Amino acid sequence: MKRILAASVAVCLAVPLWAQERTPSHPDAKVFFVNLKDGDTVTSPVTVVFGLSGMDVAPAGSGQENSGHHHLLIDRPAIGEGEDGADELLNGLPADAHHVHFGGGQTETTIELPPGRHSLQLVLGDASHVPHESPVVSEVITIHVE
Ligand SMILES: [Cu+2]
Fold first, then answer.
1. CA 123 / ligand 1 centre spacing (Å)
2. How far is the CA of 78 from the centre of ligand 1 (A)?
3. 23-145: which CATH topology?
4. Residue 79, number of CB atoms within 10 A of its CB
5. How far does the centroid of ligand 1 lie from the alpha carbon of residue 122, in Å?
6. How many angstroms is it from 9 CA to the middle of ligand 1?
7. Dist. CA 19 → ligand 1 center (Å)
8. pLDDT tens string for the chain (146 positions)?
9. What pTM, to 2 d.p., does this model score?
10. Largest CB tally within 10 Å, which of 21, 84, 117, 137?
11. Distance 68 CA to ligand 1 centre (A)
12. Cβ neighbours of residue 84 under 8 Å, at least 6 residues apart?
């Protein structure tokens, strides 16, 4: 029992230390939308092409230096600007309808969106789906789906 307790304490202490060791990004790194810009009117399904300069795209789990994989944030507050704790994203990106991972190293996707306004943002994640330090994020764009 004593041994289990000690192990639990060690794990709890280890987590914050690990969380602080985020993968460094390149100072010149930029992620951007190649084929869409703020205010565009489009029809669904929508093709989204991801651009990255200053770093390389590598699949999730890759140990390649100066690399990451794309994530598309759909209809959620911009990173660091949400009232719902958007900063938590900096500790790891969830995977759901609003946070889509491209862990295979994909550089484009096609998504179905209902008619109306939708916000999109790209963020690069490291091998463990954690944004880099400093985070590599695109501008937030709003598109109108007919
Ligand atoms: Cu990911």
1. 9
2. 17
3. Immunoglobulin-like (2.60.40)
4. 20
5. 11
6. 29
7. 16
8. 455 554 444 444 444 445 558 999 999 999 999 999 999 999 999 999 999 999 999 999 998 999 999 999 999 988 877 666 557 888 899 999 999 999 999 999 999 999 999 999 999 999 999 999 999 999 999 999 99
9. 0.84
10. 137
11. 9
12. 77
